[in-house]
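User: For a reading group we're discussing how well predicted structures match intuition. Take HAD family hydrolase. Before you show the prediction, I'll give you the sequence so everyone sees exactly what went in.
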Amino acid sequence: MNIGYSKFMAIKAVIFDGGGVVVEWQETFRRFSRLIKVDYNALLQAYLRFAPEPEIGKQSFDWHLQMTMKDVGQIDRWRELRQIVPKGFTRIEPTFQLLKELQGKFKRALLTNADLGVKEELDQYIDYLKYFEVVIDSSVVKLRKPGAEIFYLTCKSLSLRPKECLFVDDFIENVAAAEKLGFKTIHFKDPVSSVKLIRKTLYEKI
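Assistant: Thanks. Here is the predicted 3D structure of HAD family hydrolase, as structure tokens, for the group to look at:
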């Protein structure tokens, strides 16, 4: 298909969530849950429940994993989880193909709710931060999605208005928050169809 950048589109930047859009992280937890014979959903929900404080830099990543494992009754195995998180996370390849394609056509931003230091550690394994002109890390700026402040900070860093940005996230509450602020949004549900939808939104035949 012959597609090119549409000069008529108002979108000037794509803002990507990290985990679930750029990086696959849940499969690592799924494998670990099988290893320790704990229900995966219980492990996942515990991890998400203790995320808010580490994601604004108030607690360490180790604390986050300790509390997660304590919640599922396996506190003595938290170091095993630490050995594979985030080391076991992988690239979502369709997203990386898109990131390369967008270079020089749209600004690319990473807006991630992340524990302090995790993105830098992960970058050693999957070399992903270089694909973004702007990186907003919740644990560094002490703000997190779905709060409005972190979205506005991202726009300020891009020197753009919300309506000039396409925001992509796998958590519907973050998508809904961005949409209320005037962003164009896409709920990232699976890599192939979601990346196809991003392209459809950004490009047209010329």
